[in-house]
Design brief:
Elements: H1 4-15, E1 16-17, E2 22-26, E3 48-53, H2 68-74, E4 82-89, E5 114-118, H3 119-127, E6 135-139, H4 148-159, E7 167-172, H5 178-181, H6 185-193, E8 197-204, H7 208-215, H8 221-234, E9 239-244, H9 253-267, E10 275-278, H10 292-315, H11 318-321
Parallel strand pairs: 4-6, 6-7, 7-8, 8-9, 9-10
Antiparallel strand pairs: 1-2, 2-5, 3-4
Bound molecules: iron/sulfur cluster.
């Protein structure tokens, strides 16, 4: 079982250089992760192009409009089913989800697979691309082990006059309070007022059992995810959610999905409409980790998805269900 608070502090120390304002970024050149890429790594190995697709791979699942719709709305782009993003990946994560498409050796701040980059160096790499995507995606790993990263990137985008033409998108696994612990109120205010930035927060499961099974962290942290999300929401960040529904147990699943949606709606009644369940699929990195219990868990996610759909139908009007995710009213401005 992962001791999340201890491992988070250890990884933070190895992943952020406050004096020089740098973070430890994965270099894909010697990684097996690059075997799953459509295009080779770029930025001397420190970056990659990600194709975010809306497409449905399976009729049992739903489309994924993230980050396509928020970006298209903010930058006044035509509606699309695919958007490219320039990805930089923090070389650390405090959890070990069995379905993670990142090899575990790229999640432990291992200098063999990573190097230190400042925001200035990342934007230099970005500016040197022949074809620059409209989105920069700060992913991981858990980017919020270094919450300064988003702040430094925003400031660099402003310095380069890119704030109106580039959309910044970042992930958060809702595992810690570092955004509040290590940033000042002024820093948080700066980020929340920056118009072309959104964060997608990932709920790992729909109950304590599925959370623990998915992350290898203590089941007590399942409810902490809602707490961390609510704090981010309270300062006016533009937020979206992912969730995964893999679970070792199908018993009581209808009740537990309803409870999960109740908890989301305690934060905001429309939050389920800004939440996209992700279909867990087996990439080449993941397949060696798969045992029979994981195969069963993959089947359970489809039952959970049916229950999720039923709950959405029960709680929202067809007008609300058909809304573009970027138009679902939710943002709170204090
Ligand atoms: S929290 Fe995200 S990056 Fe970390 S192991 Fe899970 S899926 Fe991978």
């Amino acid at each position: 079982m992962i001791n999340t608070s201890v491992i988070s502090e250890e990884l933070r120390l190895k992943s952020v250089d406050l004096i020089n304002q740098r973070v430890l970024i994965t270099n894909f050149n010697n990684s097996t992760q690059k075997n799953d890429f459509t295009l080779p790594p770029n930025c001397e190995g420190y970056g990659r192009i990600r194709h975010f697709k809306r497409g449905i791979t399976n009729e049992k699942w739903i489309a994924n409009p993230l980050p396509i719709d928020p970006v298209s709305k903010a930058l006044s782009l035509d509606s699309a089913d695919l958007i490219k993003a320039q990805v930089f990946q923090l070389a650390s994560c405090n959890w070990r989800c069995w379905y993670c498409f990142v090899p575990y050796n790229l999640l432990s701040a291992n200098p063999q697979y990573a190097g230190w980059l400042s925001a200035e160096e990342m934007i230099d790499f970005y500016m040197n691309l022949e074809e620059r995507p409209k989105v920069i995606d700060l992913t991981g790993g858990q980017p919020d082990l270094a919450p300064e990263w988003v702040l430094w990137l925003i400031k660099e985008l402003e310095i380069r006059n890119l704030a109106d033409e580039v959309y910044l998108w970042s992930d958060d696994n809702l595992s810690n309070d570092y955004f509040f612990r290590y940033l000042t109120e002024a820093d948080r205010d700066y980020i929340s007022k920056y118009k072309n930035y959104s964060r997608v927060c990932c709920f790992k499961g729909f109950n304590e059992e599925s959370f623990e099974f998915n992350t290898s962290a203590s089941r007590d942290l399942f409810k902490s995810q809602f707490y961390h999300f609510e704090r981010l929401f309270s300062i006016g960040l533009d937020l979206y959610c992912y969730t995964t529904f893999t679970s070792p147990n199908v018993k009581g699943i209808g009740r537990d999905i309803a409870f999960f949606m109740d908890e989301l709606q305690k934060i905001h009644e429309n939050l389920p409409l800004r939440t996209i369940p992700l279909e867990v699929q087996i990439f080449s990195t993941v397949s060696p980790r798969i045992k029979s219990i994981h195969e069963e868990a993959i089947k359970v996610q489809y039952t959970a998805m049916e229950k999720w759909r039923e709950e959405l139908q029960r709680r929202f009007s067809s007008t609300m269900l058909e809304k573009n995710i970027a138009d679902v009213p939710m943002r709170r401005i204090n």
